[in-house]
Amino acid sequence: MPDSLLDLRRRIGHRVFNNFIPAMSFLIQNIEIGGEQPFYILGPCALEQEDFAWEMARSLKEICERVGVPFLFKASYDKANRTSVTSFRGPGVREGCRILAEIGKELGVPVVTDVHTAEEAAIAAEYIELLQIPAFLCRQTDLLEACAKTGRPVNIKKGQFLAPWDTANIADKMRSFGCDNFMLCERGTSFGYNNLVVDMRGLYWMKQEGFPVVFDATHSVQRPGGLGGTTGGDGELAPILANAAMAVGIDGVFMEVHKDPAHALSDGPNQIPLAQIEATLAKLQAIRQAVS
């Protein structure tokens, strides 16, 4: 870490990053999180319709089998932080988790979804292998504790308002609640109005704390509220940022994928077209092999 940042951490009382915590890994079904091989969290932003979710999950499983990569299927049952009150949200926690659980069981893949309250965490944990905490809620202690106490692994999105080293405090909370099976996910930092930027140095610094680090390529290219009533973005840049993150050495990549992003009901400008995801994954694997 540059001296100026190291001095800053010392002044504000944080641990120095040079005091590394040993790296941890854990399993979700047969997928190792934090191991030698990268994993992929893939799926549409929202559970638009049940048939659509099944179609996407089957397609992604076939693609990942051809490329030879482990994947977890992701979709959100409730997009609770939409820009507009009129925007599509989803089927809700119980119906959404039912759909995801049936997909996971039938296809033999772990499933991932966002939770927004302690009550939702308890419900989702009955069905879902990996709970995910949205970036805006990453410092909500009660939600972190509720997820930790379900016994499920947890993916915590780093808030757009946090510095990389601030994630150490989130990790401390999870460990204090008895949860070691968690990962932190980078998804960009606020960069003025309606824009995000990714500091690739942050991926390295976050990894020094010893927990697995995931890079969310598609949310990192958002332009929050950039279209007025909806979020805009630069989806064509998502694979490029994913390439850079893979070269840094992150543990996993999160990418939202849609068969027709232009007609997606949520976050269309940032999702990767299904037709492009196989080539994207193959390139990411080649980069990992080159830098390993």
UniProtKB/TrEMBL annotation:
Keywords of this entry: Cytoplasm, Lipopolysaccharide biosynthesis, Transferase
GO CC annotations on file: cytoplasm
Catalytic reactions on record: D-arabinose 5-phosphate + phosphoenolpyruvate + H2O = 3-deoxy-alpha-D-manno-2-octulosonate-8-phosphate + phosphate
Domain spans labelled DAHP synthetase I/KDSA: 30-288
Gene3D superfamilies recorded: Aldolase class I (3.20.20.70)
Pfam families: DAHP_synth_1
GO-annotated molecular function: 3-deoxy-8-phosphooctulonate synthase activity
UniProt entry tagged with the keyword Metal-binding: no
Leader peptide range in chain numbering: none
The protein's annotated pathway: Carbohydrate biosynthesis; 3-deoxy-D-manno-octulosonate biosynthesis; 3-deoxy-D-manno-octulosonate from D-ribulose 5-phosphate: step 2/3; Bacterial outer membrane biogenesis; lipopolysaccharide biosynthesis
Subcellular localization(s) per the UniProt record: Cytoplasm
GO biological process, one term: keto-3-deoxy-D-manno-octulosonic acid biosynthetic process
EC numbers for this chain: 2.5.1.55
NCBIfam families: KDO8P_synth, PRK05198.1
Family the UniProt entry places it in: Belongs to the KdsA family.
Name the UniProt record assigns to this protein: 2-dehydro-3-deoxyphosphooctonate aldolase
